[in-house]
Amino acid sequence: MKTTNMVTGALVALATSTVLAQAPELPANAGYLASNCANCHGTTGIAKGAMPSLAGQQKTYIVDQMRAFRDGKRPATIMHQLAKGYTDQQIELVADFFSRQTPAR
Fold first, then answer.
1. How far apart are CA 48 and CA 67, in angstroms?
2. Cβ distance 98 to 61 under 8 Å?
3. Mean pLDDT of successive 10-residue segments in the chain (105 residues)?
4. Helix, strand, or coil here: 69?
5. What is the largest CA-CA distance in the chain?
6. Is 38 helix (H, G, I), strand (E, B) or coil?
7. Structure pTM?
8. Cα–Cα distance between 72 and 91 in angstroms, integer?
9. Are the beta carbons of 98 and 55 closer than 8 angstroms?
10. What are residue 14's phi and psi, to 5 degrees?
11. Under DSSP, is residue 58 helix (H, G, I), strand (E, B) or coil?
């Protein structure tokens, strides 16, 4: 019984490390950049109230929307001003961060 538990534990650890190795880590500043969105969209992208949640959205969708706000192609009350402060690389990082968050159920 002990041997079976040890083998099972080793297999679980190996599978977990394989999955984690396949999902590259985000740079440390991705969470910092995304924290600027917390006031309206929630700390992990799960908004309360009328704001849209960002958690679990497709990365390409978030990138497209942020660029549209920044470039004046999508009207907004405040996002067009906020988005102007982000480079393409920063938008990619923020989008990657939120796309990896678990959406509300």
1. 24
2. no
3. 43 35 64 86 92 96 98 95 94 94 89
4. helix
5. 65
6. helix
7. 0.72
8. 15
9. yes
10. -65, -45
11. coil
